[in-house]
């Protein structure tokens, strides 16, 4: 292994890059071969694997059964209450066939749109694959979203059917879903049917003529279904990004290019081998769940864990218990979750046998070095490599990651572009920055899993992603290329603070705070300041063994950041809080913290995992007289 990043892709010609992707396309089964790898004549509107025809559902299920792997476990499902079941590829094929036939009976045809609003249960995967099988593009809406958010997505797609459940289980109690669907469907006259999975058994309102039980419709359908082949550019799904302002963006992904790249990256990045047991903790309501629970791993014929609940229910060792029980070999989660479990102490994972783990993955945001080291040493036994992956809803698949065994990754660095991907770091003029400099992360060449447009708004697609520099996709992230060529993510450009003319990333300051022995997690925001333009305000959670009553902790943390980064990076204020505002997927909602830092009324908090947490944080902030330097 080497500390210097090999230039895997940057030296490839365009022809070599296309030849690479043509080779990767053999990972999937085509009903009709493609005649051209890429049509970029109408840039930035791409067509990949032109003329090829395939079915994503067939590729994820049927072909494995036909190859003699029908008895292989596709999913070990673990419900939060403790119910479990293992589903083979043959059983998955039958369930998907039933669901596809049921949707067809309800009048769904290729091109119709379906909305899915389910907990992390097998029916969520079955519904997605059934939609893919019949060519009905799906929109999966995260179960933590409100009725308003759900209605907006249903209306934008003009969805014909909504698949939901009475509810799911969350931290030991039922969490209702059906009421939000009722509210949203009442506002969306295009919804003809609501298909309801019975999960919790809680009473729900019933709308005769519109509501149908999953077990009545799907459970009685034939398991035999012949999938239809669709054009490579047939829409597969639309995933909405959650912005803080403006209408949500419906990111359109199509079938062939997306399936090729998620299958390729899954097998390459996670070093997947026969007999492995893979577990991604994401929700299928996010792009990570689409690409690295459903389409990528299933296209590769992987065996997975599918878990309904949280890492602390019914106890804080739940994740490690599941890993030990099923012999998980690859584990993929978010830095926020890593820092949370780190906060709980090393003794919890130490109680479980985690020696089956061969590769660890990180996704969702830059991972700070301290969390990286803890993850590797405490969960990975000091030997499992960490693949710190950078990608987006828009990219569809992983774009940057250290390949296991090829590069000795530096804690906190995303490392280098994956094969076939043309990543660059550029300055304001769009020119590549030399090693040792900061800039903007861009993609210089099209890639197979790329978004095709924003649903119903081609102009917004061009303006949002392709207008900063002609012909270059701007990811919206800042990055640094270090002296060895490793890429370090600095967070969203709009999370870059300008303090007295100095550009500082929130990720960099957060990483410095978490490197202090007393800090488990930190979130940093910028607040208006009459002197410096913007000032740094930090919210920190202390480790359980830290002295929260220490009156000098704020000054100590400010001094620590000064030593780690420099005096200019010292936070103006540091608030010790019991929790941070997070969505159910683990994302920190920094806009709510900005509201507190600016001393204004906090905005909508309905998508938080715990809507009461803002009151607790606000009270902690109000009672912290020593938060600001004297």
Automatic annotation (TrEMBL):
Ranges for domain AMP-dependent synthetase/ligase: 67-447
Q: Which GO terms describe its molecular function?
A: acetate-CoA ligase activity; AMP binding; ATP binding
Q: Origin, by domain of life?
A: Bacteria
Q: Which GO terms describe its cellular component?
A: cytosol
| Keywords noted in UniProt | Acetylation, ATP-binding, Ligase, Nucleotide-binding
Is this entry keyworded Aminoacyl-tRNA synthetase?
A: no
Q: What class of enzyme is it?
A: ligase
E.C. number, please? 6.2.1.1
Biological process terms from the Gene Ontology for this record are:
acetyl-CoA biosynthetic process from acetate
Q: Give the family from UniProt.
A: Belongs to the ATP-dependent AMP-binding enzyme family.
Report the protein name in the record: Acetate--CoA ligase
Q: Which species is listed as the source? A: Microbacterium laevaniformans
């Amino acid at each position: 292994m080497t500390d210097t990043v090999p230039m895997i892709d940057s030296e490839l010609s365009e022809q070599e890059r296309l030849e690479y992707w043509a080779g990767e396309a053999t990972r999937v089964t085509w009903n009709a071969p493609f005649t051209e790898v890429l049509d970029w004549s109408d840039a930035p509107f791409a067509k990949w694997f032109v003329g090829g025809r395939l079915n994503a559902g067939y590729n994820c299920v049927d072909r494995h059964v036909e190859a003699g792997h029908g008895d292989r476990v596709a999913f070990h499902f673990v419900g939060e209450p403790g119910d479990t079941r293992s589903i083979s590829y043959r059983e998955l094929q039958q369930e998907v066939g039933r669901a596809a036939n049921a949707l067809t009976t309800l009048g769904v045809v290729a091109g119709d749109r379906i909305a899915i609003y389910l907990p992390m249960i097998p029916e969520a995967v079955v519904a997605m694959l059934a939609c893919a099988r019949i060519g009905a593009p799906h929109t999966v809406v995260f179960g933590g979203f409100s009725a308003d958010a759900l209605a907006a997505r249903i209306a934008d797609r003009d969805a014909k059917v909504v698949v939901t459940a009475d509810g799911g289980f969350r931290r030991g109690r039922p969490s209702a879903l059906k009421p939000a669907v009722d509210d949203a469907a009442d506002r969306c006259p295009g919804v003809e049917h609501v298909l309801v999975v019975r999960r919790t058994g809680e009473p729900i309102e019933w709308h005769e003529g519109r509501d149908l039980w999953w077990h009545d419709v799907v459970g009685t359908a034939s398991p035999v279904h012949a999938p239809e082949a669709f054009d490579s550019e047939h829409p597969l799904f639309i995933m909405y990004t959650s912005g803080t302002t403006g209408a949500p963006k419906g990111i359109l992904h199509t079938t062939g290019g997306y399936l090729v790249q998620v299958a390729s990256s899954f097998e390459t990045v996670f070093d997947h081998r026969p007999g492995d047991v893979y577990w991604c903790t994401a929700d299928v309501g996010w792009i990570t769940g689409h690409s690295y629970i459903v389409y990528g791993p299933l296209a590769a014929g992987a065996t997975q864990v599918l878990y309904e609940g949280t890492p602390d229910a019914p106890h804080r060792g739940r994740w490690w218990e599941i890993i030990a029980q099923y012999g998980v070999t690859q584990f993929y989660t978010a830095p926020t979750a890593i820092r949370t479990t780190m906060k709980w102490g090393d003794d919890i994972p130490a109680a479980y046998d985690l020696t089956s783990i061969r590769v660890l993955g990180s996704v969702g945001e830059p991972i700070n070095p301290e969390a990286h080291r803890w993850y590797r040493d405490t969960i990975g036994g000091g030997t499992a490599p960490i693949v710190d992956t950078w990608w987006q809803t828009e990219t569809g698949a992983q774009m940057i990651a250290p390949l296991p065994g090829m590069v000795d990754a530096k804690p906190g660095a995303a490392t280098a572009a994956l094969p076939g991907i043309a990543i660059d770091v550029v300055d304001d003029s769009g020119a590549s920055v030399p090693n040792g400099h900061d800039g903007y992360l861009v993609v210089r060449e099209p890639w197979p899993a790329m978004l095709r447009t924003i649903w119903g708004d081609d102009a917004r697609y061009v303006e949002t992603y392709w207008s900063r520099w002609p012909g270059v996709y701007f990811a919206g992230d800042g990055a640094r290329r270090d002296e060895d060529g490793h890429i370090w993510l600095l967070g969203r450009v709009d999370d870059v603070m300008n303090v007295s003319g100095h550009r500082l990333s929130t990720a960099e300051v957060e990483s410095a705070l978490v490197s202090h022995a007393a800090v488990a997690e930190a979130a940093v925001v910028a607040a208006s300041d009459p002197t410096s333009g913007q000032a740094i305000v930090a919210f920190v959670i202390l480790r359980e063994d830290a002295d929260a009553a220490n009156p000098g902790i704020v000054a100590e943390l400010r001094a620590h950041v000064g030593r780690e980064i420099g005096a200019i990076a010292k936070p103006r204020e540091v608030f010790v809080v019991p929790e941070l505002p997070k969505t159910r997927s683990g994302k920190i909602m920094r806009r709510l913290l900005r509201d507190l830092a600016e001393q204004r009324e906090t905005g909508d908090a309905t998508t938080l995992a715990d809507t009461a947490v803002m009151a607790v944080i606000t009270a902690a902030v109000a009672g912290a007289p020593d938060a600001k330097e004297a």
